[in-house]
Design a protein that fits this description.
69 residues, 0% strand, mainly alpha
């Protein structure tokens, strides 16, 4: 998680930032930080709507909202 946060903070124009957001969200989800995970998935959808990961990120985010996160 620290690595993802470092890349996002220090390299906001990094290549594959959509992949970084997605995997960061997955790590947050797996460590029970589901509200913050949802925010990362939402950010991916907002910032990279054309990403191949956007559809999956939206699906996960919607499921988290439905679950109360």
């Amino acid at each position: 998680i620290d690595v993802f946060e470092g890349v996002i903070a220090n390299h906001p124009d990094a290549n594959y930032l959509d992949v970084i957001y997605f995997n960061y969200g997955r790590c947050l989800y797996r460590t029970e930080r589901k509200k913050v995970a949802r925010q990362q998935f939402d950010l991916l959808v907002l910032e990279f709507p054309e990403s191949k990961l956007a559809t999956e990120a939206k699906r996960i985010s919607d499921a988290l909202v439905k679950a109360g996160f």
